[in-house]
Structure formats: structure tokens, C-alpha cells
């Protein structure tokens, strides 16, 4: 049945202009892209295609191992290609174990490293000199058996601390995890900045979400858990790992925004989960940190 005149919508008065949609100014900045609450570093990369794939799927950093004894050691020419390809697209890390300062400096310049990861028994002053000479941010790693190994990192005022698994008599690559609860004893001294925390050791697509929700790291670091073979990445595992890491906190805290500074977003456990008392490190005979001399390779 046809509409009666009273059922039809009233026509706009003659000469009345229709409202125009509001457009942002031409010079308005684009909306800021929200970073994932937990970043991902894909380490042990030896091939350009693996580096490109990791970054395309959301990796914050790609790590290349320069230690001569590693099964995942990268060729120097490949490292140069990877560094050049990822310039301004992602962080590029070089991993060293007790390497001379000049060697680190040469590699950082030639391979355009933005991060230098020191996985041996380098001291605080050496770490500072690496940062000064290379201009890269330094990651100081410790291999963890107990709370003392974690708190022993306090004198290292680097940009990042990395916690990995200690295995006696083995250089690494064991795929074993440590007790992630130990990460919660990490506390800066009064009025000192807390370095950002990277969590490593035995992480896989299946357990990385649990690790994140236990230790609340700023980033997670994986090598063997995303490989088809040492030095060769499995694309499906890389994608699954990154997706699991990026989605971990969204599952547990769907309504919470990512904090800009401090709190769980910067590698700190929530206040409700913070330990009641600090655990002090035990002294070693030579006064060195208990377990910063071995490296996961």
C-alpha cells in the first residue's frame, strides 16, 4: 500500500544546507600506532629472509649471534645485509660473549647494530664503554639459578637486563626454562632507574603467555623455540610465538591500557604481586656476579 502524505518524512526546507562531515586538518598527524604491551625479540637469526619475515609479523628486534662457538653464529656478510635491510624498521641486536671491545665496535658499525647484548662475564664499566663507543643500547644478560643471580644485575646500569637459564657445563641452547617467579625480585636501588626486563630461556609459542603473565617482562627473547633447525627459523612457529606474546596480557587484562612508563608495561610485576622483601645476592669468592658467564646459543 502506498504511503499516505502523513507517513512520509518531511522534506527539508528549501535552501537549507545539509551538514557536511567534519574532516581532520590536512596537516593533522596520523593516529599513533599502539605498541604491543610485550615486545618480541627473535634471536639466532642467520638469514635475511628469516629476519624480514619476523619483522613483517611484528617482531620488535632481531638478534644475530657473533660468538664463534655458537651453532647459530651469523656470517658477517649476512649480518651486514640484515642490518642494512632492517634499518629504521626494527632493532638489530648483536650478541657477544667476552668479545674484545674493538671487535664489538667494528661489528656494530658494519652491521648497523642498535642493540648490543653482552652474554659473558663483562663488568659494569665494560658495558658502559660499549654503549659509549657504539652508540647502541646495551642488554646485559645473566643466567639464573636463584634469586641472587637476578639481584646481581643491580650494578649494571644498562638499558636492558636479560634473564636466561643457567645449565652447569653447557654453553646454552638447552631449551630449558627457569623459575619465572624469580624475575620478581629484581628491584632497582632507591632513586635509580630500573632497566627494562627481557625474559629468555626455553620459551615457545605454548608457554610464552604464561611466562609473560608471571614475570611481566618488557620483552621476551626466543631462539630455539621458533626454529626448524639451529639458525633456520620455522615461519609458522615465529608467527605463533609473536601472536601469543602480543596477545598474552590482552587475555588477562582486556580493559587495562598499556602504561607508558613504569608498571607492568616496563617489565614490572603489578604491585599486588610484588615481593614483600628484597632478596639479596650471595657473594661469590671473586666478587663477580654469580652467573653471567654463559650464553644460550
Structural class: alpha/beta
**Cα-atom Rg, whole angstroms?**
24 Å
Most strands sheet: 8 strands, parallel, barrel
Could you list the spans in which at least 5 consecutive residues all have pLDDT below 50?
A: 254-266, 269-296
Helix and strand run: EHEHEHEHEHEEHEEEH
Roughly how much helix do the residues carry, as a percent range? Answer: 10-25%
State which percent range the strand residues make up: 15-25%
What is the overall shape?
globular
**Arrangement of strands in the largest sheet:** 1-2-3-4-5-6-7-8
Total of helices: 7
How many E-type strands?
10
Q: How far do the termini sit from each other?
A: 79 Å
Q: Taking all residues together, what is the mean pLDDT? A: 81
Task: Describe this structure as you would to a colleague.
Mean pLDDT is 81; it is low at 254-266 and 269-296. With 297 residues, this protein is of the alpha/beta class. The strands form two sheets. The protein has an eight-stranded parallel barrel, surrounded by six helices. The chain has a two-stranded antiparallel sheet with strand order 9-10. 24% of the residues lie in helices and 15% in strands.
Which features would summarize this protein structure in a list?
297 residues, two-stranded antiparallel ribbon, 24% helix, N-(5'-phosphoribosyl)anthranilate isomerase, alpha/beta, 7 helices, 8-stranded parallel beta barrel, globular, 15% strand, isomerase activity, RibuloseP-bd_barrel, aromatic amino acid biosynthesis, disordered C terminus, PRAI_dom
Amino acid at each position: 500500500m502506498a504511503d499516505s502524505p502523513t507517513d512520509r518524512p518531511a522534506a527539508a526546507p528549501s535552501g537549507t544546507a545539509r551538514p557536511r562531515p567534519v574532516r581532520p586538518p590536512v596537516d593533522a598527524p596520523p593516529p599513533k600506532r599502539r605498541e604491543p604491551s610485550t615486545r618480541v625479540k627473535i634471536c639466532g637469526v642467520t638469514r635475511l629472509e628469516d629476519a624480514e619475515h619476523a619483522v613483517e609479523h611484528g617482531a620488535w628486534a632481531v638478534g644475530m649471534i657473533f660468538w664463534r662457538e655458537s651453532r647459530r653464529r651469523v656470517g658477517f656478510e649476512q649480518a651486514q645485509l640484515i642490518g642494512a635491510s632492517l634499518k629504521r624498521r626494527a632493532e638489530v641486536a648483536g650478541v657477544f660473549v667476552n668479545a674484545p671491545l674493538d671487535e664489538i665496535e667494528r661489528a656494530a658499525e658494519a652491521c648497523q647494530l642498535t642493540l648490543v647484548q653482552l652474554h659473558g662475564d663483562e663488568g659494569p664499566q665494560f658495558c658502559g664503554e660499549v654503549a659509549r663507543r657504539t652508540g647502541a643500547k646495551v642488554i646485559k644478560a645473566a643466567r639464573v639459578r636463584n634469586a641472587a643471580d637476578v639481584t646481581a644485575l643491580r650494578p649494571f646500569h644498562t638499558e636492558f637486563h636479560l634473564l636466561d637459564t643457567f645449565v652447569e657445563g653447557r654453553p646454552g641452547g638447552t631449551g630449558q626454562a627457569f623459575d619465572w617467579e624469580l624475575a620478581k625480585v629484581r628491584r632497582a636501588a632507591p632513586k635509580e632507574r630500573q632497566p627494562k626486563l627481557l625474559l629468555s630461556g626455553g620459551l615457545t609459542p605454548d608457554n610464552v603467555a604464561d611466562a609473560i603473565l608471571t614475570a611481566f617482562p618488557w620483552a621476551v627473547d626466543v631462539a630455539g623455540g621458533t626454529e626448524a633447525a639451529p639458525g633456520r627459523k620455522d615461519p609458522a612457529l615465529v608467527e605463533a610465538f609473536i601472536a601469543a606474546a602480543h596477545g598474552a596480557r590482552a587475555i588477562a587484562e582486556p580493559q587495562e591500557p598499556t602504561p607508558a612508563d613504569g608498571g607492568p608495561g616496563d617489565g614490572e610485576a603489578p604491585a599486588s604481586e610484588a615481593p614483600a622483601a628484597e632478596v639479596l645476592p650471595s657473594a661469590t669468592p671473586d666478587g663477580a656476579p654469580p652467573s653471567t658467564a654463559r650464553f644460550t646459543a
